[in-house]
Amino acid sequence: ELQERVSHLRSEIAAKEARLAERRLRIEEARREREALRARLAQLNRKLNELTARKLALDEEIPSLSERVGELEGEIESLRSRLESLMGEEARRRLQGLQEKILALESEKSSLRESLAGVKERIQSIGRELESLARELEEREGRRRSRLEEISRLREELGRIEERLTELGKREEEILEAARELSETRKSVEAEIEGLLERRANLENRLKVLEREISGLEARIGELREAMESLDEELKDMPEPEEDLLASDLRTLKRERTRVENRMYELEPVDMTAIEEFERESSRLSDLREKMEKLREEVRSIDSLVRELNRRKKEAFMEVFNRVNEHFRRIFAELAMGEGELLLENRDDPFSGGMTILVRPKGKKAVRLEALSGGEKSLTALAFIFALQQYQPSPVYVLDEVDMFLDAVNAEAIGRKIREFSRSAQFIVVTLRRATLRHADRIVGVTMDQKGVSRVFTQEVPGAGG
Fold it and tell me: Taking the CB of residue 219, how many other CB atoms lie within 10 A of it?
């Protein structure tokens, strides 16, 4: 029963931890999506404000353009009227100038009409874009509210799971404490049983001695009784003895009988006490043996549970180790164009030994990690970190000049690999290598001027990862 309770608790804890990890991952994804939505929302708001301002400017520009068109049309009509009224040679000279002016005004009027049509079309386009942005804004706002509600719900569930894990942890401690108490009780009972067995052996020896002594006394009493009976028979057949001699023999026999009877009386209480004590101790020994058997059964159950937990722990560890080892082999081959492997010092009992990293760089023999150069060690360590990330990703990684000892080719390989893994996690990398920087989305630099003042600048990297 104890084993079943602990096994059930272990299973429930594992399930709760899995759900907890899943919920935390979902919360982190929701947080990232919420931040993306917030950024997109801010961008849309800025664009909406720009378009609104542009529309207002165009709305203000339309009346002035329309007024200018009217003025031009009036001026053209006026010029035409003046043209008709002019006569003579001077009129012809002025006519030519007026015609040129009319053509220029007509061209300007046509241009203004085209501009006006373009402005109206642009206003309509901006209106459609504003409607589209408004719809998108409303949709994203709805998604943001939905994500906030989901985050709130997940946080509540996360709190319940953490409370349940705490409760299960306390119950596990109680069961382990009960197991320790049972073990101590078992030791105490075993010691008491050993003492009782020794005492029973002493009592059995005393009983054997007393039984032998009683048997001897009973045999002696029988002999004396036979002798008395024989003497009684002889007395009957004998002539009357002298009175003094007969009295002396009788007194001697009576004294012997009294001595024997007194010895029997002395032995009888000792015999009964020993038998009663033996029976009591035997009964107590039987009870202790029964209790001891129960304790042994509980100990066997606990030992079986411990073996089962150790087996499951080993299986879980080996599953993780094998998965990480597979990722390490693949990633090391991609980074170093060589072979790499994780080795356990004791596969039968992995917790009693350590782990060794064995690699074969391209064109070299297989060596352990400690025999590698600084750059090769950095490359191997990064391959191991990336292998761990592949098995159980983290949302954020911070790497501080991990490419310091790498040549340009390996630094480029690390940059590409970080770029690849950045699809599922955020990487913050401190580096001075251009081969790594060219794969970043954004560069944050710190410089110091001649006055010792630090300045921070940020630069977006166009076509990052290309």
Answer: 10
Contact 360, 369 (CB under 8 A): no
Q: Is the pLDDT of residue 342 over 60?
A: yes
Residue 460, classified by CB atoms within 10 Å of its CB into exposed (0-12), middle (13-18) or buried (19+), is exposed
Say if residues 350 and 344 touch (Cβ distance below 8 Å). yes
d(CA 397, CA 125): 45
User: Can you give the length of the chain in residues?
Assistant: 466
- ∠ at Cα 252 (251, 254), nearest 5°? 65
pLDDT band at 284 (very low <50, low <70, confident <90, very high): low
In a domain, 85, yes or no: yes
109 plus 189 within the same structural domain: no
The first and second tokens of residue 142, run together, are 């709805």
Euclidean distance between CA atoms 19 and 199, whole angstroms:
59
Range of the domain at 208: 183-311
From residue 393, alpha-carbon distances to 17, 101, 284, 334, 349 in Å are: 16, 77, 62, 19, 27
Torsion from C-alpha of 82, 85, 87, 91, nearest 10 degrees: 0
Residue 211 and residue 285 share a domain: yes
Residues 344, 355: contact at Cβ < 8 Å?
yes
Quick one: 206 and 96 in the same domain?
Answer: no
The answer to whether residues 20 and 120 belong to one domain is yes
The structural domain count of the chain equals 3
Task: Name 343's bridge partners.
Answer: 356
Give the bridge partners for 356, in sequence order. 343
Q: Is residue 378 part of a domain?
A: no
Q: What is the domain-level CATH number for residue 153?
A: 1.10.287.1490
Q: Which two tokens stand for residue 408?
A: 């340009």
Look at 29-33, 121-125, 288-292, 435-439 and tell me which has the smallest mean pLDDT: 288-292
Please tell me the predicted confidence (pLDDT) of residue 242. Answer: 47
Per-residue pLDDT reduced to its tens digit, 380-408 = 888 998 898 888 788 888 988 888 888 88
Closest alpha carbon to 171 in 1, 6, 3, 4: 6
Both 115 and 204 in one domain: the answer is no
Q: Is the pTM of this model over 0.85?
A: no
Helix 2-85 to helix 243-336 angle, to the nearest 10 degrees? 20
SS (H, E, C) 224-265: HHHHHHHHHHHHHHCCCCCHHHHHHHHHHHHHHHHHHHHHHH
Task: Give me the pLDDT at residue 245, please.
Answer: 47
Instruction: List the 355-360 sheet strands across, edge first.
Output: 339-344, 355-360, 367-368
Mean pLDDT of 65-92: 65
